[in-house]
Amino acid sequence: MRKLRVLVVDDTSLYRMIVTHALQEMEDVELVGSAPNGKIALDKVAQLEPDLITLDVEMPEMDGIETLVRLKETAPDVGVVMVSSLTQADTTMKALELGAFDFVGKPTGTTVTENKDALGSDLKRIVSAYMTQRYLNELRSKHPAPSTPLKKQTAPPVTATTPLQAVALGISTGGPNALTEIIPQLPGDLRVPVLLVQHMPASFTAALALALDSRSAIRVVEGQHAQLVEPATVYIAPGGKQMKAVSIGSKVQLVLTDDPPENHCRPSVDYLMRSVADTYGAAGLGVIMTGMGADGKLGVQQMKEKGSKILAQDEETSVVFGMPMEAIKTGVVDLVLPLGSIAGQIARLVGS
């Protein structure tokens, strides 16, 4: 596979240097240039034909959002990773809605080396995910599905023998856009809560909750410590915290902790699902969606041991199939579904 051609766009020379150095340490990446603003970046895209751009949000002459919109019109095949400060969470959510592949938060360390290492770690994960998606798309284009329709195979119906009391959902790379599709499809009177882990830094999860809440009939909030869990509400685990569900008498409340990361993640899907297995048993429903890595693999097994039903997103509609694939390989997944069918299946199981 040829190297990924990357263009760095940032109005700050320090961050152009940090991002450049981080990318230069990746064997599969070829740095083709840099630009201090969106206007110059658009010219360089035409000249250099990069595969991927790292794009600052706030820049003079043409900011990241306007640049992204123009890119989608003039070079739709070029991927975009936003580079955002913690104060730009709302704008970053808008960028993801407009088609950015993912984002990295600008590190706030005290030294250039510390910031380069932190940014490099995040960029490496995202670049690897983008390369995987790109490779799979190329394979699909070279070997398209047969034009003659195949006989549709229907999966055996999945029913919840124990009335459901909670849904635990884990998602990562590609998550914000996927959630923007499925959460608004959930009914506003869903009779159970949805406990959700989306791998994101602190402050971005609050912006995600606000964005989803504004588009959905169901209530969407960022989870708070000691908050009682209620039906018809989606609780998103705050970035940088672990979230679990704990029984308090006849009630269930959220507990936020600074417990160590699991699978290099905090919040962690495994951490949440383990608590849902303990608190709800067979009355829980586990859902694993697009994401890189294996977070949630142990969690779905622990939920299944207690009798829970498990759903997973399919490969074709996942931005990255890592998390669903790892869950499916355990043998505990009851049904593999395309993105557009997940909300409906959740609603059917909850209503059964």
Give the oligomeric state: single chain
Strand tally is 14
Could you say which structural class the secondary elements and strand pairing correspond to? alpha/beta
The strands making up the biggest β-sheet line up spatially as 8-9-7-6-12-13-14
Strand content: 15-25%
Number of helical segments with 4 or more residues: 11
Q: Assign an overall shape.
A: globular
The average pLDDT value, as a whole number, equals 91
Radius of gyration: 21 Å
State the end-to-end distance: 48 Å
Helix proportion: 25-40%
In terms of per-residue confidence, which ranges show pLDDT below 50 for 5 or more consecutive residues? 147-155
Your description of this structure?
The protein contains eleven helices and 14 strands. It has helices spanning 13-24, 38-48, 64-74, 89-97, 112-142, 175-182, 204-215, 269-280, 297-305, 322-329, 339-351, and strands at residues 4-9, 29-35, 52-56, 79-84, 102-105, 166-171, 194-198, 219-222, 233-236, 242-248, 251-257, 284-288, 309-313, 335-337. The strands form three sheets. A seven-stranded parallel sheet has the order 8-9-7-6-12-13-14. Strands 2-1-3-4-5 form a five-stranded parallel sheet, sandwiched between helices. Strands 10-11 form a two-stranded antiparallel ribbon. Helix 2 (38-48) packs parallel to helix 3 (64-74), helix 4 crosses helix 7 and helix 8 (269-280) runs parallel beside helix 9 (297-305). The radius of gyration is 21 Å and the shape is globular.
